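ok, trying the design again with the full structure, not the truncated one.
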């Protein structure tokens, strides 16, 4: 287990710059816009709440949470990524903690809400990770987990790149909406976003996303699940 954690550390330690830069590209900015909108719709962060962001990366999406007023703990396995998140969030009530989402260093039921944003694809025991998020969430609290959808054309392209040696994509585990539903002990809500293709004309993206949401398509590249912990 320690060797696996060290490997994950080394994998992500090289990515802070490339990760942030991708979201500044035209397609990356569109992806962030729609992923963030779905995240906030499902999580509904409120001022004063205590939220855990497990696998916060460089804080790209953490900042969107913090802007709405909650106190947020960002847990990240890669120290270079965590340092970047801390720098970005220095004006907010943000507490960075280095750690593994499989073994959350918190007591039970200490967070109002928990979220994990596109980190699950690097976790083999997804059910164990979701169990940990449930454990640290208070009764009646919300858990939101997002990942990359195996039913999406984006996943097909990434798998092809993995076969050609792409180091990051080789480590990814893509899951379907049905697989996500089975990770928690209670029924939840599962939605997808990013229905457009990577090479789509930017001007056509809003209509494509609107249509995908209206039709409740299960093939969006971004897969999000929300559960409420029973009282």
């Amino acid at each position: 287990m320690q060797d696996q954690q060290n490997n994950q550390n080394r994998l992500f330690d090289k990515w802070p710059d490339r990760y942030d830069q991708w979201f500044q590209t035209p397609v990356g900015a569109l992806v962030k816009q729609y992923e963030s909108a779905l995240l906030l719709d499902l999580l509904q962060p409120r001022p004063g709440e205590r939220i855990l962001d497990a696998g916060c990366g460089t804080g790209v999406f953490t900042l969107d949470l913090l802007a709405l007023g909650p106190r947020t703990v960002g847990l990240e396995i890669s120290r270079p990524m965590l340092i970047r998140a801390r720098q970005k969030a220095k004006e907010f009530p943000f507490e960075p903690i280095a750690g593994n989402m499989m073994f959350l260093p918190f007591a039970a039921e200490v967070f109002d809400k928990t979220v994990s944003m596109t980190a699950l694809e690097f976790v083999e025991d997804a059910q164990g990770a979701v169990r940990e998020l449930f454990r640290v969430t208070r009764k009646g609290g919300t858990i939101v987990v997002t990942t990359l959808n195996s039913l999406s054309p984006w996943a097909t392209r990434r798998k092809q790149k993995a076969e050609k040696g792409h180091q990051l994509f080789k480590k990814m585990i893509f899951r379907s909406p049905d697989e996500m539903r089975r990770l928690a002990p209670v029924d939840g809500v599962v939605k997808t976003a990013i229905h457009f293709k990577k090479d789509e004309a930017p001007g056509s993206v809003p209509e494509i996303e609107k249509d995908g949401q209206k039709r409740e398509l299960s093939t969006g590249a971004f897969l999000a699940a929300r559960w409420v912990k029973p009282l």
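Keeping the full-length input from now on. The radius of gyration is 17 Å.
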